[in-house]
UniProtKB/TrEMBL annotation:
<dbReference type="Pfam" id="PF08676">
    <property type="entry name" value="MutL_C"/>
</dbReference>
<feature type="domain" description="DNA mismatch repair protein S5">
    <location>
        <begin position="207"/>
        <end position="314"/>
    </location>
</feature>
<dbReference type="InterPro" id="IPR042120">
    <property type="entry name" value="MutL_C_dimsub"/>
</dbReference>
<dbReference type="InterPro" id="IPR020568">
    <property type="entry name" value="Ribosomal_Su5_D2-typ_SF"/>
</dbReference>
<keyword id="KW-0227">DNA damage</keyword>
<dbReference type="GO" id="GO:0030983">
    <property type="term" value="F:mismatched DNA binding"/>
</dbReference>
<dbReference type="InterPro" id="IPR020667">
    <property type="entry name" value="DNA_mismatch_repair_MutL"/>
</dbReference>
<comment type="function">
    <text>This protein is involved in the repair of mismatches in DNA. It is required for dam-dependent methyl-directed DNA mismatch repair. May act as a 'molecular matchmaker', a protein that promotes the formation of a stable complex between two or more DNA-binding proteins in an ATP-dependent manner without itself being part of a final effector complex.</text>
</comment>
<dbReference type="InterPro" id="IPR014762">
    <property type="entry name" value="DNA_mismatch_repair_CS"/>
</dbReference>
<dbReference type="InterPro" id="IPR037198">
    <property type="entry name" value="MutL_C_sf"/>
</dbReference>
<comment type="similarity">
    <text>Belongs to the DNA mismatch repair MutL/HexB family.</text>
</comment>
<dbReference type="GO" id="GO:0006298">
    <property type="term" value="P:mismatch repair"/>
</dbReference>
<dbReference type="InterPro" id="IPR014790">
    <property type="entry name" value="MutL_C"/>
</dbReference>
<dbReference type="InterPro" id="IPR002099">
    <property type="entry name" value="MutL/Mlh/PMS"/>
</dbReference>
<dbReference type="InterPro" id="IPR013507">
    <property type="entry name" value="DNA_mismatch_S5_2-like"/>
</dbReference>
<dbReference type="GO" id="GO:0032300">
    <property type="term" value="C:mismatch repair complex"/>
</dbReference>
<dbReference type="GO" id="GO:0005524">
    <property type="term" value="F:ATP binding"/>
</dbReference>
Amino acid sequence: MKIKPIPDEVINKIAAGEVVERPANVLKELIENSIDANANKIEIFIEKGGKKLISVKDNGEGIFQEDMINAVKRHFSSKIEKEEDLYSLKSYGFRGEALASISSVSKLRITSRTIQQPVGSQLYIEGGKFKYLNQTASPLGTKIDVEDLFFNTPARLKFLKSDNTELQHIINIFSYYAILHSDKYFRLVIDKKEVYNLYPSTLEDRIGLLFSSNFAKDLVVIDYENEKGKIYGFVDINLKNKKNFIFVNKRPVKNQLISKTVKNLIGEKGYILFFEFPSFFVDYNVHPSKMEIKFSDDTAVSNLIKEAFSISLNPFKKERKEISFSLNQQISKYKTDKFDILGQIEDSFIVGYYKGDLYILDQHVVNERILYEKFIKDSKEFLSSKNLKNPIKLELSPQGKFNFEILKENLEKVGYRFDENMNILSIPEKLTQTESYNILIEILESGEKDIEKLIKKIAEKLSCHYSITAGDKLRKEEAEKLIKEWIETENPILCPHGRPIYYKIPVEEIKKYVGRS
């Protein structure tokens, strides 16, 4: 078979497949163009999940008529002149691929006017083919209409999901940029119905408008900096919203290292995190979508997150706190740095006061967190083995049996022993036979190879098993000791399973509720 060059129109469609997988990718590129053009007002119109129409209108600098054609040519860009520019980018677009890719698989209309032009210009491209470039009346700025996406690539169109599914991706992209640029006006209209009308605001207010005022109110603030970088953002510990938004150097990104590190620390929680690193530390040139990035030092990023969460999730860590038990005293007396224990409710919840907030703590999960961290710090002590009187036969799927051969050595490090026929001879000292078996099956069927995760799984079971329970009445000394140890934990906000440990009520809110504000 003779090797021949691929025609340009085919190359464009191949490239479009990398940049434009779905309507949300188109929206991302168009919003970035508007922001790069210094727009502070961006209006978005969507029809039929973006399959029929994606339209973005802005009040940015506009495009000169003589630059219109170049704007849709591949590898034409106003941002890159030399290789070094790739490592010091301040703009979003830099590859010169987005509009070329979009125009090759849609009907693209660009209408624009700069402040230097008395009238605007309109360019129309259909399936990558030039149709016309005319002068037209236009306000300052640019409006880009993308109609009938994938009309000329039926196979691609077929793989798009339902309108509702595509809309969820579109709203997610919209949210990324609305969060990142809370100082700009954003409007989103879907099928002629206004969904968002967001005026410039603070970041916290913007988050509240996007998700809910209660969601914004209950967020835990993350704010930390070391010699490698800076992290700022919010974590939702109450499971109201599991959406995750990551920004690196003011760019929305997806990064497995960050996601995995955060998940290991707080479980399945919603969060919005902003990272700042030196430009040479981050490579954005990994994928045409520019959403995937690489770091030059993964360990530094992981350590930054761990340090930030350790400090930010513990509101008591900045200074050592005194604990007092003061059931029959007035709250007005408690405006001190002490954590004052007010009492116990139904022998299940400890009530306390600290710096203007009332805390209601679940005593079981408080104890769970304490024991969990003790077990993790001293795993050798609690991972000793005990022999079984009668060996237990492991019942595994073919995949589980395959995983057993890979994981056997690590499993023996955490207290298990086996014979050559996969019978269990010994289990971790402080686990029951049933607990040991269930954990083992879960590990083997999932194929988990990380020894730290194996230890954490066992520690979760142990901490739950040995903790005080609801209904246990606590003496004054026991409550004080429990709270003192809890304050010293690395993460006093969440239990090992990811549930909130306490419910916090600002006393000012109580005053407002009873009319004493």
